[in-house]
Design a protein that fits this description.
Layout (H helix, E strand, L loop, with lengths): L6 E5 L3 H12 L3 E6 L6 H4 L6 E4 L11 E4 L8 H8 L4 E3 H5 L7 E6 L4 H15 L3 E5 L17 E5 L2 H5 L8 E4 L7 H4 L2 H13 L6 E5 L3 H7 L5 E5 L8 E5 L2 E6 L2 E5 L8 H16 L4 H10 L8 E6 L2 E5 L6 H9 L5 E6 L11 H7 E7 L3 H8 L4 E6 L1 H11 L5 E4 L12 H13 L3
Parallel strand pairs: 1-2, 1-4, 2-3, 4-5, 6-8, 6-9, 7-8, 9-10, 10-11, 11-12, 16-20, 17-18, 17-20, 18-19
Antiparallel strand pairs: 12-13, 13-14, 15-16
Length: about 450
């Protein structure tokens, strides 16, 4: 991509949009940025002064561009995108744009409906022990555009990718891809499950026989997708008598690769079967990169998880409080519920994402004492989960925790696992999780 007389339009001035605009401006492009929100100064946004901006609308000035960079989550139904399509203006993601300026030693890409951040973090920690020149970017940490200067031909890049990023990254080809699972999510954005699956499967599309695709064998959708790809497949979560696989059994991890079998037994500190999957996929990445088993084992044995993912907050009068704010969909909440035996006081709610809450009905009936609802999704959740447990409408997190305090008994587990997006009341899931922790830590 040449940087002479090319006009770039950036739609959406969140973290990734600003990073893309700054990168484009620094590379000499003419950059115009458009955001539907309220006016902010360049200084407030840490935006290059050369970038022209508009707020409160997406005007037709966008159509004067040669390339449009769309921020993750921006609605594809906006009229401006239909106009761009008619004019054959390509629409790409910030991530795809940044790929033009990096040629790392290896590119590791991780996706999945659930478990992406935990897996990406663990993969990064393992690789960092062996290769100091390792960078993590994408849907976790920093946008790829903001770390371009740190990447050279000796760098290993570890990237978490959402369906939003993958749907607009037609040119991406990772050296090693990881797909953890595919369950309904972001259906308001993608419209259909078919579209969501297509976006997720883009992680494999451009891979060749020189690349690896690591996938969850227990996921039927992934088994179907990976049966037709060109990359060398490496499955986890199965102990079938075949090579290129990794599985967990009775406290040990087994790797079968090139007619060899390796066994080791790390100490696992993070709870839940889902975290076994995250660990297995992480080990597979590290092993395929040639990292020694003792290094892998040491990092896993010291890994205590990631903030906002079934994170233990505090014990008060023999009541355990857990922050699972990252559970932004129903399947994530299902995973969290499966991590505890019973006596759960469950906080649900936030911004609805279009998926049914009924898949957790029976699990709630079995394990949950009371449900405390917050946010916009309250009437929808109440209608679908009526009868599974006693339901209290609390509106806010603070009200929910206060109500729980009046009902909770010793040996109960207070689980904040909302199954919804956070944007109705919070900036993001991190803001939401931190608010929950602040409330709990203030309790006596």
């Amino acid at each position: 991509m040449k940087n002479i007389k090319i006009n770039i339009a950036v739609i959406g001035l969140g973290k990734s949009g600003i990073a893309a605009a700054n990168l484009a401006a620094n590379k000499g492009y003419n950059v115009f940025a458009s955001d539907s929100g309220k006016f902010k100064t360049h200084l407030e946004m840490k935006l290059n002064k050369k970038v022209l901006v508009e707020f409160g609308k997406h005007s037709e000035k966008i159509l004067d561009s040669d390339i449009i960079i769309k921020s993750p989550g921006i609605n594809t139904d906006l009229p401006i995108f239909k106009s761009a399509e008619k004019r054959n203006i390509p629409v790409i993601s910030e991530f795809d744009f940044a790929l033009n300026f990096v040629k790392p030693k290896k590119f590791i890409a991780i996706t999945g409906t659930n478990g992406k951040t935990t897996t990406t973090t663990l993969v990064y920690k393992i690789i960092k022990k062996a290769y100091k020149n390792t960078v993590v970017a994408g849907n976790i940490g920093y946008p790829l555009s903001s770390v371009v200067k740190k990447i050279n031909n000796k760098t290993i890049v570890v990237s978490e990718l959402s369906s939003y990023q993958l749907e607009d990254s037609p040119n991406f080809r990772p050296d090693i891809s990881v797909s953890l699972n595919i369950t309904p999510d972001h259906l308001k954005h993608h419209k259909t499950m078919k579209n969501y699956i297509k976006a997720k499967s883009n992680i494999f599309v451009n891979q060749t026989s020189k690349n690896f695709a690591i996938y969850n064998y227990q996921d039927k959708i992934l088994r179907n997708i990976t049966s037709n790809i060109k990359a060398v497949t490496f499955s986890f979560n199965t102990n079938l008598k075949k090579t290129n696989t990794i599985y967990y059994d009775n406290g040990s991890i087994y790797i079968k690769y090139k007619n060899k079998q390796i066994k080791f037994s790390p100490k696992i500190r993070i709870p839940g079967k889902h975290n076994i999957d995250n660990i297995l996929s992480s080990v597979a990445v590290a092993y395929l990169l040639g990292i020694k088993i003792d290094v892998i084992e040491n990092v896993i044995s010291s890994f205590k998880g990631v903030e906002h993912r079934i994170e233990f907050v505090k014990s008060i009068d023999n009541v355990q409080y857990y922050n699972d704010s990252k559970a932004t969909n129903v399947d994530s909440t299902k995973v969290a519920l499966e991590s505890f035996d019973s006596n759960i006081q469950l906080i649900l709610g936030g911004q609805d994402k279009g998926s049914s809450y009924k898949p957790i009905y029976n699990l709630i009936k079995k394990k949950v004492k009371n449900i405390f609802l917050i946010g916009e999704a309250t009437p929808i959740i109440k209608k679908e989960l009526e009868g599974s447990a006693t339901i209290y409408e609390c509106k806010t997190l603070l009200n929910a925790v206060k109500k729980i305090k009046t009902l909770v008994k010793q040996k109960d587990v207070v689980l904040f696992s909302p199954a919804c997006a956070s944007f109705d009341q919070f900036d993001n899931f991190e803001h939401r999780g931190q608010e929950f922790k602040n409330i709990v830590l203030s309790l006596k």
